[in-house]
Amino acid sequence: MTNPYARFVRVCDGKIWDVAADALAVAPTYGDTDVQLALNTSIVGIPVTIPANLPAGEYDMLIYDAATPTNTDVVEPCSRRIQWDGKRLLGLPIDP
Questions:
Q1: Domain count within the chain
Q2: 77 partner at 20 to 30 Å CA-CA among 13, 37, 48, 71?
Q3: pLDDT at 96
Q4: Helices vs. strands in the chain: H and E counts, helices first
Q5: Residue 38 belongs to what domain range?
Q6: Mean pLDDT value of segment 20-48
Q7: Is the pTM of this model over 0.85?
Q8: What secondary structure, in 3-state letters, does 14-34 show?
Q9: Interacting residues of 59 by C-beta distance below 8 A, sequence separation 6+
Q10: Residue among 1, 8, 4, 83 nearest 51 (CA)
Q11: Taking the CB of residue 7, how many other CB atoms lie within 10 A of it?
């Protein structure tokens, strides 16, 4: 991937993490929902940073690869469903 980004969608109600508002939202502007990711050459991978204020819950962590995020971007197969306790992951991520 060359321009990866993630979106966090809460499973129970479909609210999406809005980066600009630093909160979950029902219908945020798409461009405000991308959590930018970058290649880390030390680990030779792309670490995912979960937003610090993301509330605890079950989320679909959707990964995309696009220079300019739009609602037509295709979800990458490395996307996962995660359990987040507000500070760390619980268990192992699974396929959404």
A1: 1
A2: 13
A3: 65
A4: 0, 7
A5: 4-94
A6: 93
A7: yes
A8: CCEEECCCCEEECCCCHHHCC
A9: 8, 9, 10, 11, 81, 82, 84
A10: 8
A11: 22
